[in-house]
Amino acid sequence: MASHNREKDTLFLFFCSLFVFMMQAGFSLLEAGTVRSKNVRNILLKNLLDACLGGVLFWLVGYGIAYGGSNDNGFAGNAMGVGKYSFAFRVNDDNLATEYEASSAGYSWVGFFFQFCFAAASTTIVSGAVAGRCTIPAYFVYSSVIITVIYPVVVHWVWDSEGWISAFNLFNDDRHGSPGRSDGEGIYGGAIDFAGSGVVHMTGGVAALVSSIVLGPRKGRFQHPEEFKSHSAPLQVLGTMLLWVGWYGFNCGSTLGISGYARDVGRVAVTTTLAAAGGGLSALFLVFAMTGARTYDLGALCNGILGGLVGITAGCSVVEPFAALIIGLMSGILVVLCSKGVEMCGIDDVLDAFAVHGACGAFGVIVVGALCKSEYSYNVHGYDGFFYSGEGHLLGIQLLLVLCIFAWVASTTAMVMIPMQYAGILRLSDEIQDTGIDVHEHEGPAYQIVEIKHTYNATKSFSPKKESPSETIAPPSPQKTPTSRAKTIPRVGSDVQLAPIGTIPAPASMDNVPSAAN
To answer: CA 393 to CA 97: how far, in whole Å?
Structure first.
């Protein structure tokens, strides 16, 4: 029976991992639709590299720092003891004696895959924020550091059984002798961040903010803002919907199994849905109220949905449905206000990564300290939300986690970005930004769009009947001009290059009739 349950958990976790991995496609579509069309191929390349580069580096180093072995300290994992299997991750699955051991080996393999998908998502957040002006060599550097050091350290703090602020650290339990380990690693039963509002999203969002500040805005971003609008609404919406679907694997899969957790999985699906819906609605109507034109902003709706999803990720398993809706509504408002604030500060965050992931991630962690239900809390001491018990123990722990994540991620990201900026390898030249990264560093524009013009003119003539003048269209002249097939050179600074394929000229006597462009 035990081996059968383990096999069910393995299958459940595998399918949830696929949903999380599919979020990379969602990020790709969302970012491709938001950036200028002349940089689409570049951002798609970086999204694919997040999976390729991230897969290798997280397997080689990142997973070991995140989870290590059984002799880790509270800050990071190490290779001591069984920790050696976490670096260049592998499972010792040779000569297993029982069916349960074999099932457990499979579960361990899938567990790595699940964690890798989370790590790739955190790195992708940064690439969207710095789109349009960051070099590919700089991308390789900062992505490598994030997925091997910055992100895994935060994972270890919160999710490893030996992390200094982990609710899974049994040494935090009074039943094991004291509320903290003798070497000071345990703290008040641990923080609650069930699926990663802080660990994944705030980490990526803060790194995105610091990177955007160091890198500076795109050329002309605040002088000619009308030139930097999102170029494809369909891609934005498809990306948002894929992310929403993938989030069910993200949150529900964080139970790490289905055996004995069916109640929690179901509740997480409901809270996730309500938060996303609430975030979208509040952001949409807030922007509607703020704009004098009273327009319904599609981009605000997409960001509100994502903000609601980020906000609920920490507490999706420990809050009630009404609380999830409140979290979503407040997250949508926070996305809009934070986005405006970042823009007013002159920071060019292309995807609103800090507003969606950083601010809403921090909010999601903190609000658990207020709305965590007593019966759902997994803090080792059983601390719950302020509105249930009137006590602020859990709220204080959650605040401490947010401050520590911000300090760690902001400082380490700055240490990576600032030297590259001074070395001149971080930012693309103004010339490349004008003409587009796709033309300079890739195979060319992502879109092969042409403009075909057919010019037809009509001659006005009156019928011989005097009583009813009419207009007739004269047939084309038998005299023809050769069709032009010459392509034009893309205009500097243009987003979509339009290359006329050909025209069909009309007789010279026909004029003053507008042409129809297809």
So the answer is: 46
Which is it for strands 503-504 and 453-454: parallel, antiparallel or unpaired? parallel
> Half-sphere exposure of residue 501, counting CA atoms within 13 Å on the CB side?
8
Spans of the chain, pLDDT less than 50: 172-185, 456, 458-476, 478-518
2-163+196-217+233-434 topology per CATH: Ammonium transporter fold (1.10.3430)
* Cβ(495)–Cβ(481) below 8 Å: no
195 φψ region: left (φ > 0), alpha (ψ -120 to 50), beta (else):
alpha
Task: Say which amino acid occupies 356.
Answer: V
Convert the pLDDT of each residue in 148-207 to its tens digit.
999 999 999 999 999 999 998 875 444 333 344 434 445 888 999 999 999 999 999 999
483 dihedral zone (left: phi>0; alpha: psi -120 to 50; beta):
beta
- In tens, the pLDDT along 29-54 reads 999 999 999 999 999 999 999 999 99
pLDDT recorded at residue 444: 87
Buried b (16+ CB within 10 A) or exposed e, 309-341: bbbbbbbbbbbbeebbbbbbbbbbbbbbebbee
Helices (H), 424-479: 430-435, 437-441
DSSP assignment letter at 468: S
Q: Where in the chain do CATH 1.10.3430.10 domains reside?
A: 2-163+196-217+233-434
Q: Which amino acid is at 206?
A: V
Does residue 481 come out as left (phi exceeding 0), alpha (psi in the -120 to 50 range) or beta?
beta
Tell me the torsion sign for CA atoms 408, 414, 419, 424. Answer: positive
Distance CA 189, CA 408 (A): 21
Write out the two tokens for 509: 């006597």
Q: How far is CA 303 from the centre of its chain?
A: 11
Per residue in 293-312, pLDDT tens?
Answer: 788 999 999 999 999 999 99
Contact 357, 370 (CB under 8 A): no
**pTM of the entire predicted model:** 0.84
Half-sphere exposure of 376 (CA within 13 A, CB side): 25
